[in-house]
UniProtKB/TrEMBL annotation:
CC terms in the record's Gene Ontology section: clathrin-coated vesicle; cortical actin cytoskeleton
Major site of localization recorded for this protein: cytoplasm
One Gene Ontology term from the biological process aspect of the record: clathrin coat assembly
Protein encoded by which gene: Hip1r
Keyword Phosphoprotein: no
Domain annotation I/LWEQ: ranges: 1-160
Coiled-coil segments: 119-155
The protein's name in its UniProt record: HIP1R protein
Amino acid sequence: QGAATTQEFYAKNSRWTEGLISASKAVGWGATQLVESADRVVLHTGKYEELIVCSHEIAASTAQLVAASKVKAEKSSRNLARLQECSRNVNEMAANVVASTKSGQEQIEEKDTMDFSGMSLIKLKKEEMETQVKVLELEKRLEGERVRLGELRKQHYVLAGGCEDAPEDGEARPAPAPRRGILKKPPIAQKP
């Protein structure tokens, strides 16, 4: 498309080329991370959640690779059709890994039955209040981690060249503080 050689084409479309290479590397990196996470889980040193995150990362990176390819490919391209078919297979396999991981996690984790029959009314109320405190602490921590995840994604996007206003010298500008009001959940109704 307007270039005599493949090298000229990639040079002429350098931003697109960088995006395509970045997406390809992300797929490979995700696969490596998935294998390493699976090894750790088998050795009981890793977390099942790592497998789930890696599976989602691979599926997302593959979708990004397909999207980048579609930008410059001809609609009748056989290679694009093959890539899209492979992407569907990757998504299906990633979903299978997630489902298998959750199933295995449920089978292995010990689930203690909650028996409160021997507790007095005062002890039950105390346990209930302590549990409410834990729930609120975890929700606050979860909100903080979501904000952190958003900032990490913004920075990744900037470093990957996704922002038009990114500085040319490669230095990342500090991200603006998130608007807290948008991210807050409504308060949970408490029992009297």
